[in-house]
Design goal:
The complex is a heterodimer of chains A (140) and B (143).
Chain A (H helix, E strand, L loop, with lengths): L9 H9 L7 E2 L2 E2 H10 L7 H15 L5 H5 L8 H18 L3 H9 L1 H27 L1
Antiparallel strand pairs in A: 1-2
Chain B lengths: L9 H9 L7 E2 L2 E2 H15 L4 H11 L5 H4 L8 H19 L4 H6 L4 H31 L1
Antiparallel strand pairs in B: 1-2
The chains are: A mainly alpha (140), B mainly alpha (143).
Chain lengths: 140, 143
């Protein structure tokens, strides 16, 4: 069976998992889930189709039960782990929050079609994150 | 009077603002607010010194025109990148935290406690601001 990391199309990726492909297998020397996560850490925009596919594959792997402990633990000397992702996301949100102190910025966000939908997408992502953080805090 | 863009010392920056410096002045041929925004974005990606955050915040609070940030010609470190990367980061964080065994792994890594608290606070803060303006926009549209 072809390795999951070598499959490009999402449909084939899903079929391979349904067919019993190893979700904890490796790709380019690291667990596939780590490989996707590391790629995602270096992406700064999601309007690109390739980037969206990468995110989708990561979500599918995780939903299929892939082991993310190495994503959480990370590797020595590398910033590509959940700890730094959360740190950077926090900094980005703090910067956005500083900008949103401006009434002019708030108006401009809702007046522009691109920013309007981007902000709604961010709102939904933040709701999901907060729900997961609350569950994680309960487990601590 | 010194240009705001060349002042690295926070106290000096604050004093210059208080002395009536033009918050919409240019620095490196672009609005100074855009310069500090780019510095903040670079700081996040390259783990640099974070003094630019305070300077950016002070400029916003002093009423600087933020319009240039919405129409910048620079291809990287733009507001578009900020919103999309924040959204992507939130999405991946949610997916990772929701993974099987993730919460147990996090419970075994004490350094995550502060991370989660910080992320939660920042997410709540932005969400509150988005929802606040969203409801204001919706009620203005229905009125």
């Amino acid at each position: 069976m072809k390795k999951l990391g070598g499959i490009e199309k999402i449909e084939d990726f899903i079929l391979a998992i349904a067919g019993g492909a190893d979700i904890n297998g490796t790709w380019k020397g690291v667990p596939l889930v780590d490989y996707y996560f590391q790629q995602l850490m270096h992406i700064y925009e999601i309007s690109n189709k390739t980037h969206r596919t990468l995110l989708q594959k990561y979500k599918i792997l995780v939903a299929a039960g892939a082991d993310v402990s190495s994503v959480i633990r990370g590797y020595p000397g590398s910033y590509d782990n959940a700890f730094h992702l959360m740190r950077r996301t926090t900094l980005r949100l703090e910067l956005l929050s500083a900008l949103l102190e401006s009434a002019q910025a708030q108006n401009l966000l809702w007046q522009n079609n691109y920013y309007y939908s981007a902000v709604l997408e961010l709102r939904d992502a933040l709701r999901k994150t907060l729900a997961q953080i609350e569950q994680a805090e309960d487990a601590l | 009077m010194k240009h705001l863009g060349e002042i690295r010392d926070i106290t000096g920056f604050q004093a210059t603002l208080a002395a009536g410096a033009d918050v919409n002045q240019l620095w490196c041929r672009r609005p100074v607010i855009e310069y500090f925004f780019t510095e903040c974005m670079r700081h996040i990606c390259l783990n640099m010194d974070g003094a630019c955050f305070l300077q950016f915040r002070m400029l916003v609070e002093a009423g600087a025109d933020v319009f240039p940030l919405f129409h910048t010609v620079y291809s990287e470190y733009t507001l578009k990148n900020l919103i999309e990367s924040a959204c992507l980061g939130a999405e991946i964080s949610a997916v990772t935290l929701g993974a099987l065994g993730a919460k147990k792994a996090i419970a075994n890594a004490p350094s995550y406690t502060d991370r989660l608290t910080e992320l939660k606070k920042a997410a709540q803060d932005v969400l509150q601001k988005i929802e606040g303006t969203e409801s204001a926009v919706c009620s203005a549209e229905t009125a």
